[in-house]
Recover the amino acids of this structure.
């Protein structure tokens, strides 16, 4: 199989707070571009299907690659018409990749269709991966034997220190670093906030923050090539 499922958020605000959030567009773009250059096809899915909001900060801080993709009408149209997680056939995919942006903290953790897709992909011998807050989607993935995917595994994701740097610690519903540890994960991070960092524990591949997307994408590709 040469297809990867990329998961994006439908959540546009910090819960009921009026402050806007959504997909951190660079995390999708750098992943999408990297795996396609490596020969993989990508399908984009969201919990509810349909339109994907973009975190306004991510568009203001976009680099050239992101700006180029944002100028691509076909690519941007695909973010207005994403498939619904419940309609996806996990058997078609070699990997699933959870993108971030604070919106995912509201719609990734409790989505049973996403959990089922990830479990099936993993138990079929595929790779489960995430970057930044995308690790929220890993929290409650339960395997067929009843164990949590992250239990006892080396995992990273957006740190508490980085929530402070981003000045949104009081807006988020939970601290990802703490929740991963509560589920038995061996949480690891770079000592410097916002520095690129990625880690792989077998077929579980994670990146810490937006600046880690290229690193985690490279690790994901390496892992897929070893399968």
């Amino acid at each position: 199989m040469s297809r990867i499922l990329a998961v994006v958020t439908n959540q546009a605000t910090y819960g009921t707070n009026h402050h806007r959030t959504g997909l951190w567009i660079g995390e999708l773009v750098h992943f999408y571009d990297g795996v396609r250059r490596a020969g993989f096809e990508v399908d984009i899915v969201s919990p509810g299907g349909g339109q994907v909001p973009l975190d306004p900060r991510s568009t203001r801080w976009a680099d050239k690659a992101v700006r180029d993709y944002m100028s691509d009408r076909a690519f941007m149209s695909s973010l207005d018409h994403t498939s619904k997680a419940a309609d996806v056939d996990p058997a078609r995919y070699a990997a699933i990749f959870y993108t971030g942006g604070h919106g995912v903290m509201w719609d990734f953790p409790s989505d049973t269709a996403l959990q089922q897709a990830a479990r099936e992909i993993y138990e079929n011998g595929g790779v489960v991966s995430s970057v930044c807050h995308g690790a929220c989607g890993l929290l409650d993935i339960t395997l067929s034997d009843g164990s949590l995917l992250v239990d006892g595994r080396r995992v990273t994701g957006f740190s508490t220190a980085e929530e402070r740097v981003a000045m949104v610690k009081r807006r988020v519903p939970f601290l990802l670093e703490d929740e991963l540890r509560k589920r038995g994960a061996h949480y690891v991070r770079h000592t410097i906030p916002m520095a690129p960092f990625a880690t792989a524990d077998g077929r579980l591949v994670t990146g810490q923050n937006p600046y880690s997307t290229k690193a985690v994408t490279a690790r994901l590709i390496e892992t897929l090539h070893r399968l």
In short: The longest strand covers residues 41-46.
